[in-house]
Amino acid sequence: MAAAADTTEAPFDPRALRHALGQFATGVAIVTAPGAEAPVGMTISSFNSVSLDPPLVLFSVARSAHSLPALLDAPGYAIHVLGREQEETSGRFARALAGKWQGIGHRPGLHDAPLLDGALAHFECAAHARHDGGDHVIFLARVLRFSLRDAGEPLIFFRGRYRALSPTA
């Protein structure tokens, strides 16, 4: 009789896991939504498409994020794909700080979610579903309207730093 395989998972260092996950280059986006007193916005790197029919996208938010309660209550969101020139905006929205909207051009979108000026693409979404994601909440959003700008390079995050795409030879 063959011996059973050991399926016990060995614990590993969360920092090492984070470093390994950093080997995957991601685009950078900001999600915005209306808040009870003021709009909320935060930088995300967990944005991706899910389905074209129906048009669904997802993003995840840490359970410790100050914006999480407002996002959980929001009827909809705006997701912004950032361009290379928006690195400072990404850094500003990555921190929980007052005044992150100071000097940031925006206009109201669907569900009063702010649309940030200069993004490569905007996705205006309705809340669709939420799922447990461990220390994160996974938001599934239905795209109701979108716009895009065909010029400009994306903002990329790789190995813990913002990066630029290299031109192909």
TrEMBL record:
Keyword tags:
Oxidoreductase
GO molecular function: any one?
FMN binding
Flavin reductase like domain ranges (all copies): 21-164
* Keyword Oxidoreductase on entry: yes
* Keyword field contains Cell inner membrane: no
Q: What InterPro entries does UniProt report for this protein, alphabetically?
A: Flavin_Rdtase-like_dom, NADH-dep_flavin_reductase, Split_barrel_FMN-bd
Q: Which SUPFAM superfamilies match?
A: FMN-binding split barrel
- This one is known as NADH-FMN oxidoreductase RutF, flavin reductase (DIM6/NTAB) family
